[in-house]
Every structure is written in structure tokens, then in C-alpha cells.
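Reviewers of the previous submission asked for a worked example of the structure-prediction workflow described in the proposal, so we include one complete record here. The input consisted solely of the amino acid sequence. No template or homolog information was supplied to the procedure at any stage.
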Amino acid sequence: IIAMYQALSRLGTGGGALLGGLLSDLIGLQLTFFLFSIMTLSGVILVLEAGPIRVPGTAPSRDHQMRQTVERSESFTPFLLWLCVFSLSMTEQMIANLTGRLVADRIILGIPFSIGIASLTGILLSFRTFGTLFIGPASGVLSDRIGRETLILAATFLQIIAISSLALFKNWLFGILVLSVQLLASSATRVGIYTLAGDKAPQEGQALFMNRFSTFNDLGTALGPLIAFSIYASFGFGWVAVLAILLLSGVIGILLK
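From that input alone, the workflow returned the following C-alpha cells.
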């Protein structure tokens, strides 16, 4: 369910940007804002009308799954979970926001055909957005079968390999491939960490738990671009990669603790 939620959320993000741009050119900016405002209001009404879905017989199995999760990682405290989502979201935004600079400085120079920097950057970022439509549900299925921690570990390790390769090699085709792999792997870790947070959220104080989780996620999302551009401008991508690898290695260390 969380995987489908993430996939549909990313579809709305990518599709909204595309649709908004097209409508702005076709019908004007003011009417486009009006239409999207109506859509937003409709969503609020639907949320207010929606109630919790309860299926008879499913609650005990969820409780059992939560007990198993707690038993497998008794030392995995909420604060460690928040540190994990902070590191994962910060790394994700560092690489995503540097995509344009990487394309301009490392990839576009070696491409044997004509394509603009903005066009290639847009293709890569839209591939990340729409790729979540497939990666999200697949990650959700894997998360249910192999476990939340295992999925996060595998996707995080894949990110480390991709970022290291991106820093070491400058071939344009290889750069596009590993950058695409990293962007998709970051989507898988997002599904895994959100699902893990849902499993570990206590019945009492669940809203407070998830609010703090979202706060650390937002902090990582906000700091990622700021720190990435600052380091990139002063020291180059190599040191950005070092910081990203340290953050991801910390996540692996916490999960293996």
C-alpha cells in the first residue's frame, strides 16, 4: 500500500509539472492555477470524507508483523530511524539536485550527438519520477517478502556503488546509466524506510511519531541541495560523493546494529 502511495505521489509530481506547463501555454497561467486549485480542494474534500478502511481479520496479522519487526531490531530506536530517513533523503536530494551540474560538467561533453543540457537533465529527472511507478510497487512486494531492513540495505548498497562509480568514471554513457540506477535505488529506499516507519509507529502517539519522522525527512530534503551545491562549487563532485557515501554507510551501520 505504501509503495503504491509513493508511486502515485511521484506520478502526481511529474504529471503535475508536465500538465501545468502545457496548460499554462494553452490556456494561460491564471486559469491553470484556478483549475489546480479546484483539484486541490477536491482532494481535501475526499480526504475529509474518507474513513479508515478496516478489513475483518487483518488487524491480528498486522500486529503480529509489527511484533516480529520489533523483535528483530530491539535496539533500533525511533531516533535511529529518524537519522536513517534524514541521511537517505539528504543523499537523494544531493544527487537529484546536482543532476543538471553533472550533466553539464561530466556527461554532455562526451555525448556524440546533439542534445541540450536542460533536455537531458529533464529526461533523467523524469525517468526518476516516472520510474517510481514501477520501482515503487516492486519495492513494496520485495519489502513484504524479504523484509524492510533487507530492502533498504540492498538499495542503499546499490546507491553507494552508483555514486562511487559516478565519481570515479567520466564516460558519458556509463554516467547516464549509474545516475539512473542511483535515482531509482533512492526511490526504493524511500519506500522501504516509509514502510519501516509505519511498522514501528506505536499505536499510542502514532501521529507524533510520524510527525517527527517527517520532520527529519524534511530536514534532509532541505539541507541536501544547500550542502551539495556548496561543496560542489568549492571542492567538486568527489567530496559530495564522499559525504553521500558516509551518510549511506551510516544507514547501513544502523540497520546492521
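Confidence is low (pLDDT under 50) at residues 55-62, 64-73. We consider this example representative of the routine output the project will generate in years two and three.
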